[in-house]
Design brief:
Blueprint lengths: L2 H22 L3 H26 L12 H7 L1 H5 L4 H20 L7 H29 L14 E2 L3 H15 L3 E8 L2 H8 L1 H18 L5 E6 L2 E7 L3 H17 L2 E2 L5 E2 L3 E7 L6 H17 L5 E3 L3
Parallel strand pairs: 1-3, 7-8
Antiparallel strand pairs: 2-4, 2-7, 3-4, 5-6
Helix pairs in contact: 2-6, 5-6, 8-9, 9-10
């Protein structure tokens, strides 16, 4: 084993740990409550479907719900290797593979059979809620490595997070896409209104980006006025829709500057989908090339990477 490989592995391990510390240093209470709410929303949807239609066949499996996405991606980084996370995953498999199919009228043997599976569903959901609380309560919260201006992920976490997401996409045969976004004419904002106003614009853009993506996705400050968004389990077509939605949101937003006039700011974006290359920089470069074309075509637009 070469010294270079050992050094690279050590750097990756340190980046993984740094991200865990960073992410746990965010609003842990809000993240916990958000995931509890997502879990309960899925549970209520299933129970309502059973009451209305006599079956839960129309409901997505828990693993495909927003809560399932969070467990697979963010929780997989934050709490990997913990017994509670493995038990949550096991409970989710039981729900998807045994309990939901058991709620089908053809599978249930009389009303007692259906009642049994409904009771099992409630028991498993309660178990997951308890374990979720346990995960957050026992995790040590620490502020480390965030971008101090925008509160988005620091670029140094890119190798750790994108490397893991590419591996997940390849092993599970699911799509993965990234967006590269740039604030249009940002230098002009700095020159005309000053750097404090430029900072205010970046903070507001970051807030809009964070509000436009799912809890399982990742938003990075890539550098200067550039941001990168990692969209998990997302095809290129959907990534373009997300980028266009962000473009419209930013275009319509009134950016309030400290003590000065309000202004309008636009963004340009490039989108690319993972095509199997294990080096995450290939994916970033493809999205960056699409962003370059968007800016050259007049800005305030979205372009897709060329295959």
């Amino acid at each position: 084993m070469s010294a270079a490989f050992v050094q690279k592995s050590g750097q990756r391990a340190r980046a993984d740990e740094a991200y865990r510390l960073f992410a746990l240093g965010q609003d842990v209470s809000a993240e916990r409550e958000g995931q509890r709410a997502a879990l309960m929303e899925w549970s209520h949807t299933v129970l309502f479907d059973i009451l209305a239609n006599g079956t839960g066949d129309n409901c997505k499996p828990l693993s495909q719900s927003p809560f399932g996405l969070w467990v697979r991606h963010r929780a997989g980084i934050l709490f990997e290797g913990t017994g509670a996370l493995e038990t949550i995953r096991s409970a989710m498999r039981d729900i998807d593979d045994f309990i939901l199919p058991g709620l089908n009228p053809e599978a249930a043997v009389g009303p007692e059979g259906a009642s049994h599976f409904i009771g099992e569903l409630r028991r498993r959901i309660d178990e997951i809620k308890f374990l979720l609380n346990d995960l957050f309560q026992t995790a040590s919260a620490a502020e480390n490595g965030h971008d101090p201006l925008t509160r988005t992920l620091n670029r140094r976490f890119l190798p750790s997070i994108l490397g893991r997401e590419l591996a997940l996409a390849a092993s599970n045969d699911v799509p993965f896409s990234v967006l590269m976004l740039d604030v249009d004419h940002f230098k002009s904002v700095n020159d005309r209104y000053g750097h404090s106003s430029g900072d205010a614009v970046l903070q507001q853009v970051a807030d809009l980006l964070l509000g436009a993506v799912r809890p399982a996705d990742f938003v990075f400050r890539f550098g200067g006025e550039e941001f990168l968004i990692a969209l998990v389990e997302t095809k290129l077509g959907r990534a373009l829709e997300v980028a266009e939605s962000i473009r419209r949101i930013c275009e319509a937003h009134v950016f309030r500057l400290p003590g000065q006039e309000d202004i309008h700011v636009t963004v340009s974006a490039g989108a690319a989908q993972f095509e199997g290359h294990p080096d995450y920089t290939y994916l970033i470069n493809a999205a960056d090339e699409a962003l370059y074309r968007a800016k050259n075509a007049g800005r305030n637009r979205v372009e897709a990477a060329r295959g």
